[in-house]
């Protein structure tokens, strides 16, 4: 039997847990948090496999557990830019351009931006405040790879060996904060990635981490995102331009990836910006990835 790693509230405090079937147990000793467990992943992986076969301790029904983000908190969050063919094509058309060759077809390497961790990460059923400086917050469902083994200069062939598991991310983006219009597009200060990507609550994660071995072919996984029950994104990781392995390999060339880091692997077509439709107070977002589950959050008004 497989398992899922999660964090939940126990006596008002976050605690690492493992869900086996529909029951949540505390992590086996000596680990008390998912982050600590990831930092000892090779040993923990074997112990968790045994634990899943014969759970020990008093469990809590999963439906009664108060889940928070599975990792409190990731070390670094790396986000792939423009990594789905269908998404790149829709953005090209929105800007009046005919879709052309992908960056990979042009010989370019994968690229990433970063999101903050503690201030951005929220968990299942969180209520995210719209930032007061933005009127155009957009949704982006993403498959998130959770690093469980230090990675530096790994090859694409070995990159997935560094992944402990996968979870769901929603890369919320303040589209109207993306550019500093007073700076020309040729200026290195024209784009503002921090304001666009790093406001409080900008990175919902969860509801849990599924072990990498349990997900199967990571390049053939269905993704779907709905806002208030209306499907906005409906695609597959087969639409990725750079595979998960290629992204991790490239990131590890530039810096060391540590256990507990998270790599968001891009979003498919169906975001709001091409149609000029964005999130409003009271909106409910459901992000679903086959083999993982559903991550739901609600938008609340700004202060």
Verbal overview:
The chain is about 15% helix and about 30% strand. It is α+β, with helices and mostly antiparallel strands and about 300 residues long. The chain folds into 2 domains: about 60 residues, no CATH class; about 220 residues, Fumarylacetoacetate hydrolase, domain 2 (Alpha-Beta Complex). The strands form 4 sheets. The chain has a 7-stranded mixed β-sheet with strand order 7-6-17-11-12-14-8. Strands 4-3-2-1-5 form a 5-stranded antiparallel β-sheet, with no helix packed on it. A hairpin with a 2-residue loop joins strand 2 and strand 3. The longest helix is centred in the first third of the chain and has 13 residues. The mean pLDDT is about 95.
What is the gist of this entry?
With about 300 residues, this protein is of the alpha+beta class.
Order of helices and strands: EEEHHEEEHEEEEEHEEHEHEEHEEE
Instruction: Fill in the CATH topology of the largest domain.
Output: Fumarylacetoacetate hydrolase, domain 2
Largest sheet, in brief, is:
7 strands, mixed
| Principal-axis shape | globular
Put simply, the count of helices is: 7
Distance between the termini: 45 Å
Give the % helix.
10-25%
pLDDT < 50 runs, ≥5 residues: none
Which strand-content bin applies to the residues?
A: 25-35%
Number of domains: 2
Q: Would you identify the CATH architecture of the largest domain?
A: Alpha-Beta Complex
Helix-strand makeup class: alpha+beta
Number of strands: 19
What strand line-up does the widest sheet have?
7-6-17-11-12-14-8
By CATH's scheme, which homologous superfamily of the largest domain applies?
Fumarylacetoacetase-like, C-terminal domain
Rg (CA only): 19 Å
Average residue-wise pLDDT: 93
């Amino acid at each position: 039997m497989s398992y899922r790693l999660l964090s939940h509230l126990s006596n008002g405090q976050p605690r690492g847990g493992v869900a086996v079937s529909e029951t949540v147990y505390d992590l086996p000793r000596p680990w008390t948090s998912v982050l600590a467990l990831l930092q000892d992943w090779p040993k923990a992986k074997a112990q968790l496999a045994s634990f899943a076969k014969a759970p020990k301790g008093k469990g809590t029904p999963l439906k009664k557990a108060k889940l928070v983000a599975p990792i409190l908190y990731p070390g670094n969050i790396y986000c792939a830019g423009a990594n789905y063919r269908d998404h790149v094509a829709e953005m090209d058309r929105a800007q009046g351009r005919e879709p052309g060759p992908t960056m990979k077809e042009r010989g370019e390497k994968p690229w990433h931006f970063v999101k903050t961790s503690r201030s951005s990460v929220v968990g299942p059923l969180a209520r995210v405040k719209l930032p007061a400086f933005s009127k155009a917050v957009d949704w982006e469902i993403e498959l998130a790879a959770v690093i469980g083994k230090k990675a530096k200069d790994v090859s694409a062939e070995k990159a997935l060996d560094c992944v402990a598991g996968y979870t769901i991310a929603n890369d919320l983006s303040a589209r109207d904060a993306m550019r500093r219009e007073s700076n020309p597009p040729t200026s290195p200060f024209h784009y503002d990635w921090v304001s666009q990507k790093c406001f409080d609550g900008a990175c919902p994660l969860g509801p849990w981490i599924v072990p990498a071995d349990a997900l199967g072919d990571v390049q053939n996984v269905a993704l779907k995102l709905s806002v208030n029950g209306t499907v906005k994104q409906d695609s597959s990781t087969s639409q990725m331009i750079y595979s998960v392995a290629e992204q991790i390999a490239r990131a590890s060339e530039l810096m060391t990836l540590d256990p507990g880091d998270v790599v968001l692997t891009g979003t498919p077509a169906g975001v709001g910006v091409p149609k000029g439709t964005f999130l409003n107070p009271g909106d409910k977002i459901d992000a679903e990835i086959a083999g993982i589950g559903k991550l739901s959050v609600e938008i609340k008004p700004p202060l």
